[in-house]
Amino acid sequence: MDKAFHLHDVVEMKKPHPCGVNAWKIIRMGADIRIKCEGCQHSVMIPRRDFVKKMKKVIVAAPQAD
Predict the structure, then answer these.
(1) N or C, where is the chain less crowded by C-beta within 10 Å?
(2) pLDDT at position 66
(3) What's residue 61's pLDDT?
(4) pTM tops 0.90
(5) Quick one: pLDDT at residue 4?
C-alpha cells in the first residue's frame, strides 16, 4: 500500500471525526501535520509519525505544480 501524501490532498483516516465525516484535507506539512475536517472544518495538528499510522488512503490528490 502506497502511503505517499502531499499538501492539499484529501485523505481518509482509520477513524472518522465525531461529526461523522472521514475526509481530511492536509493544510500544513512538516514534523507535524495539520489536517482539517472536510465536514465541520475543525483542524487538528498531529505528529507525522502518528499521521502515517492513522492514515488509510488518499481520496483526492491535489494537483502538483512542477
Answers:
(1) C
(2) 57
(3) 86
(4) no
(5) 85
Say yes or no to pLDDT of 1 above 50. Answer: no
Amino acid type, 5: F
Domain borders along the chain are 10-57
Residues in the chain: 66
Taking residues 6-27, what's their average pLDDT? Answer: 93
Sequence-distant (≥ 6) Cβ neighbours of residue 29 within 8 angstroms: 6, 7, 48
By C-alpha distance, which of 61, 16, 8, 3 is closest to 35? 8
Q: Please state the φ and ψ torsions of residue 65, each to the nearest 5 degrees.
A: -85, 130
Cα 56-43-7 angle, rounded to 5 deg: 60
